[in-house]
Amino acid sequence: MADGAQGGAYDVAIVGAGFSGLYMLHRLRELGLSARVFEAGPSVGGTWYWNRYPGARVDIESQEYCYSFSPELDAEWTWSERYAAQPELLAYLNHVADRFDLRPDIQLETRVTAAHYAEAARRWMVTTDRGERVTARHVVMATGCLSVAKEPDMPGADSFAGASYHTHRWPDGGVDFTGKRVAVIGTGSSAIQAIPQIAAQAAHLTVYQRTPNFSVPAHNGPTDPAVAADWAANRAQYRQEARDAGFAIRAVRQAEETALAVSPEERAAAFEARWAHGGFCLLGAYSDLIFDKAANDTAVAFVADKIRSLVEDPATAEKLIPKTYPIGSKRICVDTGYYQTFNRPNVSLVDLIETPIEAITPAGVRTTAGEERFDAIVYAIGFDAMTGALSKIDIRGKGGAALRDRWAEGPKSYLGLMVAGFPNLFIVTGPGSPSVLSNMAVSIEQHVEWISDCIAWMGERQADAIEASEAAQEAWVAHVNEVADLTLYPQANSWYLGANVPGKPRVFMPYIGGFPAYREKCAEVAAKGYEGFLVTAGGA
Ligand code: FAD
Ligand code: N01
């Protein structure tokens, strides 16, 4: 069945060598197929190679945020902390690459610039920035949802005479901020992890905040040996519990009762217990927190009081409390000492709603309140999420149609896996799938397994092309929107909606119907002979 890798012809070309690309390669190898991975970076690891900023770590407990496909891998790997930090996650993914001998089929420092579908041959022509052209029956875009950084868009950003950093492109070997005056622009998950670490080192840190975020404590620490032993004894069951959980996160411990059905005292106790436990489980306290504004308000009020209790200066505390969107409608941040950092004498907060940035100057940052001088500026301003990496590649399907054009009004896909008019092009955790609204380690495995099963199924039938039908795609897009509108999510100006990138169409991109329902739908589609897909064999 293998096409053979001679002369740059493969069964499958995989773009990206993060969590998704590595597992995709492993699965295809097991099927006896030839596959080549192209990775723009100098290392495997994706997210966990690029985001090396101080404090970078996972926001889902390490035991849950890792592959589940290999019991041997599970048995030989131990996590040193409850929430693993970036170096450990990168070491894990490097270990996976070595353990499964993946490296011979991975080409690093090679960016895919174009992928064009040749209809007559039913093959993709893939072009790289090294001038190579290879062909493949299938292309898997394992390019990541959060892999294209937003560039600083304030006037004068290029004029700054000091050092500029982006959290997504942190220098190898780190940065020493000792004795420096540092600005951090942004207060999303990346900033909230980096700020306490930078504050501990810098002479002075100024945080420029446009929209405050809700953050909950991680209560991170060394892995509790009892927890590790419990996981080792019950891993298969716990993994299944994660797959059966709405966000594919077991630790959320989703309760069934609704927030307003209980007394204020009972509610306060439940929130308090979950705050003490740490992480995302706060949102699992009641079943209606992401559906009902009044229920959500109770969690907002709880977190607001926590912020007031943690931040000594009342004016600073008020600025740090989000007041314009429901909790959970933007990804909650999971921090280690974030709010307490604002009690340090060397840290100040600038509220950009009161005093917007006018320009980055050669000396520092100028807001409507005046200029502050810095030695370094850290941009923690996020990503062109979900569609950014795909829109950077010149992807052309049937009739030479460009994916960029097809998605000009917002991304459309069937199940987040395939796009009508683009046969044999698969997307891992694409828009329209649970993706970033889930434990991505779980979602990635489900997608990779669905895609490899589909390719194997095609091989068994000597089918040479599979493509989402327009009708199935339209119905799925309508369903994704309908489900999003049942929740409070569209009420926030989040990157889920593309609201963080000027000019990006405002479309709710991930699927919020829950991982279990989604997984079931994908399995049902496959069991019905890939219902909603058009399959071609021998040109018919
Ligand atoms: P990535 O890890 O993004 O890998 C994609 C790779 O594709 C990149 O290495 C990129 O260089 C490469 N690539 C892109 N375009 C091209 C091209 N044209 N040619 C060649 N190569 C290309 N998710 C969670 O569930 N829990 C978390 O705690 C969590 N923490 C995160 C923390 C940070 C700082 C960030 C940014 C994201 C986090 N995420 C988290 C989401 C995270 O991206 C996923 O969990 C997961 O790592 C994605 O793996 P991936 O392989 O799909 O994509
Ligand atoms: O990016 P973000 P991120 N002027 O988009 C501000 C995952 N992740 O890298 O909200 C001034 O969330 C912007 O302000 P506003 C996780 O899924 C996980 O932090 O647009 N400010 C915001 O405050 C996360 O959700 C972890 O008003 C500007 C910030 O920059 C996703 O990645 C860690 C601005 C960007 O926040 C993205 O997180 C890190 C401007 N021109 C990331 N432009 C974990 O904890 C933007 N901002 C596991």
Question: What's the average pLDDT?
Answer: 96
**CATH class type of the domain at 6-44 and 102-148 and 384-434 and 454-511 and 532-537:** Alpha Beta
Architecture of the domain at 6-44 and 102-148 and 384-434 and 454-511 and 532-537 in CATH?
A: 3-Layer(bba) Sandwich
The CATH topology of the domain at 6-44 and 102-148 and 384-434 and 454-511 and 532-537 comes to: FAD/NAD(P)-binding domain
How many beta-strand segments? 20
What proportion strand?
15-25%
* Oligomeric state of the chains in view: single chain
Number of continuous helical runs: 15
Q: What proportion of the residues is helical, as a percent range?
A: 25-40%
CATH superfamily of the domain at 6-44 and 102-148 and 384-434 and 454-511 and 532-537: FAD/NAD(P)-binding domain
Unreliable segments of 5+ consecutive residues = 1-6
Bound molecules: flavin-adenine dinucleotide, 3-acetylpyridine adenine dinucleotide
Q: Which descriptor suits the 3D outline?
A: globular
Structural class: alpha/beta
Query: For the terminal residues, how far apart are their CA atoms?
Result: 20 Å
Major β-sheet profile: 8 strands, mixed
Radius of gyration: 23 Å
Short description:
Helix content is 31%, strand content 17%. It has 15 helices and 20 strands. Flavin-adenine dinucleotide (FAD) is lined by residues 15-21, 38-41, 46-47, 51, 56, 58-60, 65, 111-112, 142-147, 190, 389, 393, 428-429, 439-440, 444.
